[in-house]
Amino acid sequence: MMKMIKTVMEGEGAIKLFVASSLDEFKAERNELEYFFSQLNNILVKRGMFVKLILCEGSSDAMVDGRMQDAYNDEIRSCDILYVLFRERAGSCTIEEFEVAHQNMFEAGRPQIFVMIQRLGRDDELSEALCSFLGRLKDEFEHPYSFFTHIDQVKYDMLCNVAKSLPLDIELKVEESGIFVCGSRLAGIDAQNGAQAVF
Predict the structure, then answer these.
(1) How does DSSP assign 70-104, residue by residue?
(2) Rounded distance, CA 62 to CA 154, Å?
(3) Is 141 helix (H, G, I), strand (E, B) or coil?
(4) In terms of CB atoms within 10 Å, which of 33, 39, 72, 99 comes out highest?
(5) Cβ-contact 182, 194 below 8 angstroms
(6) For residue 76, which of 24, 20, 120 has the smallest C-alpha distance?
């Protein structure tokens, strides 16, 4: 099985998805995403497809000469899809990752970029840095963003965009009992939370 996964990871059926987010704010959610994509890959690898999820926790400081952020930026340039997640803050590294991706998108045609902000309640206040960045998204970059309330909405959004990016069609079905990919129930996502539209 490991040999098969390695072969698929290096083939045409593999896509790379990078998640940019605040290390502190989304630590638990990044763990959930790792589990979710592990379960998705268990289904996809049998069909010759694979999603390489890249999280900053997965990179090694020992492998990089110079600034660690430069290594992340190189990963972003080679990605097919980038998700940028915000809650209340907008750190300089996360903003830089968006800027690198945006520039590369115009120069090389990738990655696809999705910006999502989590809203926990009506009284949430976004930091000045995040408000400023959202203003830049609208005025400078002319790039859309959406809000979500539950991480399963992000997982489902990722799943739909991954499905569009894979070289073969994969069947997605949402039922009360769960979300199904190619007839197999996908673990790590709640259908009721996940299939709600982002706003």
Answers:
(1) HHHHHHHHT-SEEEEEESS---HHHHHHHHHHHHH
(2) 31
(3) helix
(4) 33
(5) no
(6) 20
> Which range among 55-69, 102-116, 156-170 has the greatest average pLDDT?
102-116
State how far the alpha carbon of 155 is from the alpha carbons of 33, 130, 191, in Å. Answer: 7, 22, 10
Q: Average pLDDT in the 102-106 region?
A: 96
- The larger pLDDT score, comparing residue 78 to residue 56, is at 78
Q: Give yes or no for residue 97 having a pLDDT over 80.
A: yes
Pair of tokens at residue 38: 């592990």
The answer to whether 88 and 126 have CB atoms below 8 angstroms apart is yes
What's the maximum distance between 2 C-alpha atoms anywhere in the chain?
Answer: 50
Residues 137 and 160: their CA atoms lie apart, in Å, by 23
Kind and range of the H or E element at 172? strand 172-175
Q: How far is it, in rounded angstroms, from Cα 113 to Cα 100?
A: 11
- pTM, rounded to two decimals: 0.88
**Residue 51: in which H helix or E strand, if any?**
strand 50-54
